[in-house]
């Protein structure tokens, strides 16, 4: 959605960004430019203008063609990448003014620099593969269809006048055509692969395809061979927004995105003659430090798809439930995190209740003076670690009945560790003791990270690298882990 600039309810983006600019150049044997195809994942600049406009795509093509000295018969063009949820506006900052010339000019300058470094080959294998899967639409129930027909019957001339009437008409269209055939393609030109999908594709889907493609370089052209609406990944449907509202602009089944992604990756494997790659988060200094300390479970929370939170230290895999967004920037460069928006991670308790350490990195999304609920970072049985909302000093850390004094600054990364030795509990914040006291152990079969399921006990923000150790770490170990995190 578009919340507006510096809206106090805006917390952060609901998905990652694909900021790669891809170029494919073809020239004659004597070095004369014949064609350049660019691909970039940004929706449009969208400034006021004529009804029909090439937007920044056309301006970019003209500027790049001029800057590389291409002749009149050369074709320079830009295709739209996975930009279904990407736009140039940064709503966390004051409003910026933008125009087509400025945006296209900056992008063309980057493209020209890359173009000058292209190395050409006089031969490359080419190929193409295609499939036409049939996907279901999310059609209205009988009750909703009856409502839609009643509403639309009163629309003069069949021309909707407002949002309600528009979506009423859409329900009638969906009921009349409950499924659609899609054309999915993969093209190969040497070590480059191009995926073609007839939808407005989210950036995270493009990153899945790029990251798993068996080719050295891959990009996706969206709205290719059709326009079948937005395809948000399944977890985005729980968050809502107009990209999930059933209409011809977003009608496909909830599992459409993984089905399309899997089909495209299969086509790429067919063209390459080898299997796809795995997307794995790098094991940086912090991850290595935690693994060296032998955790009972270590959920890195860098998943790019699905609802399983894999245990990097064993087999205590967790389940992501409720509202969450995947593959957001984590606490360190190249790390990824889950943004919990009413959701949580649920897993079996992997450590004894009488002696354990829980350690994680968290980014508190809500302002302290506007927190309506308690932010739960961790809970197991009757033990709860959270950030205080109403009823305690806002923004302070607490564990059970024990409270700290330091206020957690909103929108900052922090390191926290709960260390239990029998009845004794110490909570460390950013490497230093913040809470100390005694509480009886509370055995439980399951633990939760990022909420308990109670609407008043959720967490709004990002959590990265959650680990549970089957022993009480020393103060020196906790401090060493915090330093290795580099936050």
Molecular structure report:
Strand 19 and strand 20 (383-387) form a beta hairpin. Helix 1 (55-67) crosses helix 2, helix 3 crosses helix 4 and helix 8 runs antiparallel to helix 9 (475-485). The protein has helices spanning 55-67, 100-115, 142-153, 163-176, 203-212, 234-237, 256-272, 285-292, 475-485, and strands at residues 22-27, 33-40, 75-80, 126-131, 134-136, 179-181, 184-189, 192-197, 200-201, 217-222, 230-231, 297-299, 308-309, 318-321, 324-329, 336-341, 344-348, 355-364, 375-380, 383-387, 396-399, 402-407, 413-421, 424-429, 432-438, 446-449, 460-469. The chain has 487 residues and is of the alpha+beta class. The strands form six sheets. Strands 12, 15, 16, 18, 23, 24, 25 and 27 form an eight-stranded antiparallel beta sheet that branches. An eight-stranded antiparallel beta sheet has the order 13-14-17-26-19-20-21-22, with no helix packed on it.
Number of helical regions: 9
Helix content: 10-25%
Most strands sheet? 8 strands, antiparallel
Provide the residue-averaged pLDDT: 94
Gyration radius, to the nearest Å?
Answer: 26 Å
Poorly predicted runs are none
Strand content: 25-35%
Shape designation: globular
Write the layout of secondary structure elements.
Layout: E1 22-27, E2 33-40, H1 55-67, E3 75-80, H2 100-115, E4 126-131, E5 134-136, H3 142-153, H4 163-176, E6 179-181, E7 184-189, E8 192-197, E9 200-201, H5 203-212, E10 217-222, E11 230-231, H6 234-237, H7 256-272, H8 285-292, E12 297-299, E13 308-309, E14 318-321, E15 324-329, E16 336-341, E17 344-348, E18 355-364, E19 375-380, E20 383-387, E21 396-399, E22 402-407, E23 413-421, E24 424-429, E25 432-438, E26 446-449, E27 460-469, H9 475-485
Parallel strand pairs: 2-3, 8-10, 9-11
Antiparallel strand pairs: 1-2, 4-7, 5-6, 7-8, 12-27, 13-14, 14-17, 15-16, 16-27, 17-26, 18-23, 18-27, 19-20, 19-26, 20-21, 21-22, 23-24, 24-25
Helix pairs in contact: 1-2, 3-4, 5-7, 8-9
């Amino acid at each position: 959605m578009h919340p507006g600039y510096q809206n106090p309810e805006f917390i952060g983006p609901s998905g990652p960004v694909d900021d790669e600019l891809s170029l494919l150049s073809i020239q004659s044997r004597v070095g004369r430019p014949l064609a350049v195809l660019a691909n970039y994942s940004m929706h449009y600049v969208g400034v006021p203008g004529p009804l029909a406009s090439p937007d920044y795509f056309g301006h970019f093509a003209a500027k790049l063609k001029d800057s590389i000295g291409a002749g009149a018969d050369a074709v320079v063009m830009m295709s739209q990448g996975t930009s279904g949820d990407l736009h140039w506006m940064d709503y966390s900052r004051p409003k910026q003014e933008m125009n087509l010339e400025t945006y296209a000019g900056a992008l063309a300058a980057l493209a020209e620099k890359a173009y000058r470094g292209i190395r050409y080959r006089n031969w490359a294998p080419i190929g193409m593969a295609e499939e036409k899967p049939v996907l279901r639409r999310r059609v209205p129930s009988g009750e909703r269809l009856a409502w839609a027909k009643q509403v639309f019957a009163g629309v003069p001339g069949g021309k909707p006048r407002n949002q309600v009437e528009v979506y009423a008409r859409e329900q009638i269209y969906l009921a009349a055509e409950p499924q659609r055939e899609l054309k999915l393609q993969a093209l190969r030109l040497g070590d480059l692969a191009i995926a073609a999908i007839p939808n407005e594709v989210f950036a995270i889907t493009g990153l899945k395809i790029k990251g798993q493609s068996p080719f050295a370089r891959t990009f996706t052209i969206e709205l290719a061979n059709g326009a079948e609406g937005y395809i948000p990944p399944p977890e985005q449907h729980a968050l809502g927004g107009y990209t999930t509202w059933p209409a011809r602009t977003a009608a496909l089944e909830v599992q459409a995105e993984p089905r399309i992604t899997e089909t495209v990756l299969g086509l790429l494997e067919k063209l390459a003659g080898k299997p796809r790659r795995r997307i794995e988060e790098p094991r940086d200094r912090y991850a290595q430090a935690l693994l060296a300390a032998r955790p009972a479970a270590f959920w890195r929370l860098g998943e790019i798809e699905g609802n399983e939170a894999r245990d990097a230290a064993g087999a205590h895999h967790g389940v992501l439930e409720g509202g969450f967004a995947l593959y957001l920037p984590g606490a360190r460069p190249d790390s990824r995190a889950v943004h919990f928006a009413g959701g949580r991670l649920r897993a079996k308790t992997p450590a004894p209740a009488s002696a354990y350490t829980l350690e994680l990195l968290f980014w508190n999304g809500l302002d302290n003076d506007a927190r309506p609920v308690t932010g739960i970072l961790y809970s197991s049985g009757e033990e709860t670690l959270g950030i205080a909302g109403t009823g305690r000093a806002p923004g302070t850390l607490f564990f059970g009945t024990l409270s700290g004094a330091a206020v957690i600054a909103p929108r900052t990364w922090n390191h926290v560790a709960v260390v239990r030795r029998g009845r004794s509990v110490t909570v460390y914040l950013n490497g230093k003791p913040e809470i100390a006291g005694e509480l009886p152990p509370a055995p439980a079969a399951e633990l939760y990270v990022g909420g308990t399921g109670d609407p008043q006990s959720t967490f709004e923000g990002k959590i990265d690298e959650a680990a549970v150790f089957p022993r009480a770490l020393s103060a020196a170990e906790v401090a060493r882990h915090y330093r290795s995190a580099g936050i």
